[in-house]
Design goal:
Mean pLDDT: 75
Number of helices: 7
Shape: elongated
Low-confidence stretches: 96-107
Number of strands: 5
CATH topology: Rossmann fold
């Protein structure tokens, strides 16, 4: 028996294309009366980290890494002006016309926004699904040969292999 979806993990790479993918996640959340947990994973790469440290020094490396983490968090939590506009537009799009509520009220579909860091994006996604008890993953992929491209994408392929919950893959056109 298919269990109703209560919590959706929306895996975002913070690209412009993710707005198309988020629309699908939001529509599913509304139809299923579910909440959305947004996740962005910053991949650790020990080899490139070592090269950057050697080339630019430990202090500059730490500053760059910190700026990247803060930038990702600011985009996700809405401190970034463009991201804030997108969130308000999305909230307005899904709001019922007869409601005269301020979009800043906490009636969002998004229950949590997470920024994680790990050696494997797929591992972080699947472990977050378990930790947050999500029962659906929504991800995006480039629209070139849809299924072949989805299965060919390293992160998506790994998530499909490791996930215990359904994975909804949304093809998007590059902008």
């Amino acid at each position: 028996m298919v269990q109703p979806t209560k919590s959706i993990l929306f895996a975002s790479d913070l690209s412009v294309n993710m707005s198309q993918v988020f629309e699908h996640a939001a529509t599913l959340a509304i139809c299923q009366n579910a909440n959305i947990i947004v996740l962005h994973v910053m991949e650790e790469s020990p080899h490139s980290e070592k090269r950057i440290r050697m080339a630019f020094g430990e202090e500059l490396y730490k500053n760059l890494k910190s700026e990247h983490q803060n930038g990702a968090r600011n985009i996700l939590i809405g401190k970034n002006v463009d991201a804030l506009k997108i969130r308000h537009a999305i909230a307005g799009f899904f709001e019922e016309p007869e409601q005269n509520k301020d979009t800043s009220e906490n009636n969002s579909l998004i229950s949590k926004i997470l920024a994680a860091e790990g050696r494997s994006i797929a591992d972080e996604i699947t472990s977050t699904v378990k930790e947050e008890e999500c029962n659906l993953i929504v991800m995006g992929c480039k629209q070139q040969g849809l299924l072949a491209e989805a299965i060919g994408d390293n992160v998506i392929r790994k998530v499909l292999k490791r996930s215990d919950v359904p994975v909804f893959i949304v093809p998007f056109a590059e902008k």
